[in-house]
Write a structure and sequence with these properties.
Growth Hormone, Chain: A; 72% helix
């Protein structure tokens, strides 16, 4: 791991790994959102109703919450190289299924399975953290997240054009299928192009992949508490698909899923106790302890940042259209400015975090985030359109820079658990999106933005509990000796 000057265009091995990683993440988002810009063509081709289109949008994120937890554990246990390659390879299959679907039921199944590829982000967080020192980590993770996240915008820009070039009723199928082929091919390129760690470095694995390790009794109960919103969001998605929502599943299936979620939660509690039961009798040595409250704070912040980004990107075209009485295509182009900010904002958030400190940066950006959404809540049709777009882009900067700052801190908590921590924090982003979009279905746009502003303020208050990463974290080498990894 080199501590030389950060040069994005150098041919050093760590920069090659960074570029391999963001391209892999870019492809996962390209595949994950390949349907969104083509929904009109898909609906026309297969005679889908408005309710069925909305159901596909829900199914697209349903599996991502548990998938990020699972992928985080797999990454820590098997390494990023194998995990990312297998994910890209396997998810090309439901991508092909979606392209070949001839009914809503086939589309729904394929879209549900494709939610798994949304977990790819977690893998690169661990991989990048292995290759960059602490003083460059925020910048590297920001580039990885910001440039990779642009895959959704690339899908919106390129896939409709590809569908039109092919033409006919099957144009959308070729566009979707092409992203699956790209994912399949890149799985081999990634596998043969990267290593998990620099030459001679140790890849530290957790003691168990069944549950996250904690180092105190209080942290054990906090871990259980932080699991509750994850299952709550899955229950909320189940309700949306039930007869009380869009009626995709029957009442009996809904009840079975509720029971399944409850059983799964109790299994998670049992697994967490099984992995951590030693802490109830034997205190962990101070050198090996970490504060789980660090994870909890970052979870809440990612709920407000990435959760609001996913929610706002989904509703912003319609918001501009209705507020300013615009053509929906023009409104969509204006709304795309929100997502385009990712290219620079997220890397900049990571860079600021490297330069001025994790906690201070998060406090400044979270304050701006809360104020930004309060401003958006105040927008009316009487505002100049240009001013409203500037307000949205300014808010977007704080949202995405905040995401970069969150994941500048995630890898500095406990190296061997980075995948699991990133998985939980990433899942909280999806939980935020589910909660915000559900709230939007009951309230006005203004109230929706006020709710996000308030939740960001809660995150700001929780930041007072966070400790600035300092000193080093300890990991045990295979020979039993201890390696200290610098975090500042």
């Amino acid at each position: 791991m080199s501590s030389s000057k950060f040069n994005l265009f150098s041919l050093t091995e760590n920069m090659k790994v960074l570029h391999y990683s963001w391209v892999a993440f870019f492809i996962t988002f390209l595949v994950w959102f390949n349907h969104a810009p083509l929904l009109g063509l898909i609906a026309q081709s297969l005679n889908l109703s408005s309710a069925e289109i909305k159901t596909l949008l829900i199914l697209n994120v349903a599996l991502t919450i548990p998938a990020r937890i699972f992928i985080g554990m797999a990454t820590d246990q098997y390494g990023p190289r194998k995990t990312f390659s297998v994910l890209l390879l396997l998810c090309s299959i439901p991508c092909g299924m979606f392209a070949l679907s001839d009914s809503f039921e086939e589309l729904a199944l394929a879209r549900f399975l494709l939610g798994f590829i949304g977990a790819g982000f977690v893998i690169g967080i661990r991989l990048v953290s292995e290759w960059f020192p602490a003083n460059q980590l925020g910048t590297a993770e920001g580039i990885y997240g910001g440039w990779g996240n642009f895959g959704s915008a690339a899908a919106a820009l390129s896939l409709p054009a590809l569908a039109l070039v092919v033409g006919g009723d099957d144009g959308w199928r070729w566009a979707v299928g092409t992203t699956g082929v790209i994912s399949f091919i890149y799985s081999f390129i990634f596998y043969f192009g990267v290593r998990d760690t620099p030459q001679g470095a140790t890849y530290f694995k957790p003691k168990s992949s069944k549950a996250m390790e904690v180092t105190s009794v209080g942290d054990f109960y906090l871990l259980l508490l932080m699991k509750v919103p994850l299952f709550g969001a899955l229950a909320l998605l189940n309700w949306k698909l039930s007869p009380a929502g869009v009626s995709l599943i029957s009442e009996n299936i809904t009840v079975l899923i509720y029971f399944g979620l409850a059983a799964w939660f109790f299994y998670e509690v049992y697994s967490a106790y099984h992995v951590n039961k030693a802490i109830f009798t034997t205190p962990v040595e101070p050198i090996h302890q970490y504060e789980f409250k660090q994870v909890a704070v970052l979870n809440v912040l990612y709920f407000a940042t990435f959760g609001s980004e996913l929610a706002v990107v989904s509703m912003l075209p319609l918001y501009f259209s209705e507020t300013f009485d615009l053509n929906i295509v023009y409104a969509g182009l204006l709304a795309s400015s929100y997502a385009f900010m990712n290219l620079m904002s997220r890397p900049l958030g990571g860079w600021i975090s490297d330069k001025y400190g994790r906690k201070k940066t998060l406090m400044i950006l979270t304050t701006g985030l809360s104020i930004g959404y309060a401003v958006m809540a105040s927008i009316t049709g009487d505002w100049p359109l240009a001013l409203a777009v500037i307000a949205a882009m300014s808010c977007s900067f704080f949202v995405q820079a905040g995401e970069g700052a969150v994941f500048a801190a995630v890898p500095l908590i406990k190296r061997r658990l980075t995948g699991q921590i990133a998985g939980m924090t990433g899942a909280y982003g999806n939980v935020g999106a589910v909660c915000y979009l559900t709230i939007l279905s009951f309230v006005s746009y203004s109230v929706f933005f006020w709710v996000i502003a308030a939740s960001a303020f809660v995150g700001l208050l929780m930041l007072f509990l966070m400790q600035e990463p300092k000193g080093s974290m300890a990991e045990i080498l295979p020979d039993g000796s201890v390696e200290l990894i610098q975090v500042d």
